[in-house]
Design a protein that fits this description.
single chain; 1 helix; seven-stranded antiparallel sheet; globular
């Protein structure tokens, strides 16, 4: 009886994992189509899915996942010595994604804060380039978009309440920065 219960729980967990993976795959596929449409509409060529990283998080508390994507590969035209380009897209009811903003001079890690401005969560990005001291910068939504150039935004420090959505703790930052 005990073995049957353990098997049932394991099977349930496995089924949940498959469902989560399918959902994630569906979000990635839908985002890639929306991202490609946006890039082509703005006169840029499209990117392959492996040329960017993306994370899905509800940034505006509408119970729909939004997409935060970072293009940091030099061969894309969206990255250079100062970092890559961060794109934010809003999730829509029909399952597609709508462009909100892009920010240059951005590096991993990217964090989301619990604090909001004009209905959207604040983002914290690592920024360098343009002669600035590399540091974490806060991006505050202005009602239309996030700032285009994080390097001129206020410096901040990562807190325990901030959630990392892109990158790792082993990002290419000098030690002791936080």
């Amino acid at each position: 009886m005990k073995q049957a219960l353990v098997f049932f729980i394991a099977l349930s967990l496995c089924t949940s994992c498959v469902s989560i993976q399918k959902d994630e795959s569906a979000h990635r596929h839908s985002f890639h189509a929306s991202f490609t449409e946006y890039l082509e509409g703005s006169g840029s060529g499209s990117l392959a899915a492996e040329q960017y990283t993306v994370s899905f998080v509800d940034l505006n508390d509408d119970d729909m996942l939004d997409a935060v994507a970072l293009v940091s590969r030099w061969d894309t035209g969206y990255a250079g010595s100062g970092g890559g380009t961060l794109f934010v897209f809003a999730g829509t009811r029909d399952g597609t994604y709508s462009f909100i903003s892009k920010s240059t001079l951005t590096r991993e890690p990217v964090h989301v804060r619990k604090t909001t401005n004009r209905g959207w969560r604040d983002l914290v990005v690592y920024s360098s380039g343009g002669g600035i001291q590399p540091s974490d910068r806060i991006l505050v939504f202005d009602g239309n978009s996030y700032p285009a150039n994080p390097s001129v935004e206020p410096k901040t420090r990562i807190t325990k309440q901030d959630s990392m959505i892109l990158g790792s703790t082993e990002s290419n930052q000098p030690s002791g920065n936080r």
